[in-house]
Amino acid sequence: MKTIIAAYSQNRSGKRIANLGYLEMTTEGLVLSAFVGGGSRASVQVALRTLLTVPWPSQWEFRTCIQLLSVLQWALSWLFHVLEVSCNLSTLYTVFTSFWPVSALYIAWVIFDWDAPEQGGRRSTWVRNWPVWNHFRDYFPVQLVKTHSLLPSHNYIIGAHPHGILCVGAFCNFITESTGFSEKFPGIRPFLATLAGNFRLPVFREYLMSGGLCPVTRRAIGYLLSQNGSGNAVAIVIGGAAESLACKPGVTTLILKNRKGFVRMALQHGAHLVPAFSFGENDLFQQVVFEEGSWMRGIQKRFQKLVGFAPCVFYGRGLTSIHSRGFLPYPKPITTVIGEPVTVPRIKEPSHEMVDLYHEMYIRSLLKLFNDHKAKYGLSEADELRIL
């Protein structure tokens, strides 16, 4: 094989093989000749010439392909819910086969384990460290920046901004270890709150819990902040579905003025508030933004109230080319900066004035984080953060 490899190397460098007959007389040539069934000398030469002229993918092309596949599987799972549907269909199908006892036992287990998502879940270090998440990170790439330390002796609520279309920055930084959260913040266990309905689906609920996802409910968040020890950091994408409707490149709008429930919970449990901003999150997709008062805008808002998320009309890159339109995010860098914690006292029944006070303190901390780092990560000094 050394002869073939050497010949291929010469061919890749622009040199031609002058004597294919010599190559045929080597051990490799004889093996190839026997493999093709004792073909003629000409046929062996043609086969070797074809083998040596086929362009092999470069290391860069192979790495790009793997990154694209990692983002594709993520998009199919979270955008089109392929993983959810397949889990449901598999469980249903098994009921009508000879493996029905397996489904029966699992359904019984789910009933018994129904409250697990709201009681800390079951994090898996193995799942959080899957190699696929490293390729997912490198596709954009995603980077986590630490500005202040988080002490393991406290619990935290991290406000993740902005929502964007699919919360890529929040997912990559808080659900996987690809950006090194545990190394940057030793002793801190990150969680990410998402829609509670996702945890009612068989099998898929186990997948969500293994990464550190929890329902965005008072009960689930309260458990992590009061009954799961210290060192817990619950990330909440505060803007939610309403913020995704205002997501478009070049504009940073946060839905935050009337979102004060997270501040009240922080006060009730004595959890410090930490702002986090993902620069570049709004650049991953192009969204069709409908004017306020239009019938399509009204449909989006009604849908949001009914099911908890808004049907955005958006597009990204295609599967085969970055210049074609498709459903995959554009490969643009995302930098998530963790800001300075706002120290919060524990008050069992905080007053409205107290909630407003710490809400204002949180907004000031978030604005400082944004203004201090926007020039470093793609924004100009003139760009402002709009808070609605």
Tags for this model:
transferase; lipid metabolism; 2 domains; 17 helices; 7-stranded mixed beta sheet; 388 residues; DAGAT; 3-stranded antiparallel beta sheet; 12 strands; alpha/beta; EC 2.3.1.-; disordered N terminus
> Mind telling me the C-alpha Rg?
27 Å
Strand order of the main beta sheet, please?
1-11-7-2-5-3-4
Q: Number of folding domains? A: 2
Instruction: State the helix count.
Output: 17
Biggest sheet character: 7 strands, mixed
| Arithmetic mean of pLDDT | 83
Overall body shape: globular
Low-confidence stretches: 1-37
Query: Alpha-carbon distance between the termini?
Result: 67 Å
Q: Give the helix/strand class.
A: alpha/beta
SSE pattern, N- to C-terminal: HHHHHHHHHEEHHEHEHEHEHEEHEEEHE
Q: What fraction of the residues are assigned to beta strands by DSSP?
A: 5-15%
Structure summary, number of beta strands? 12
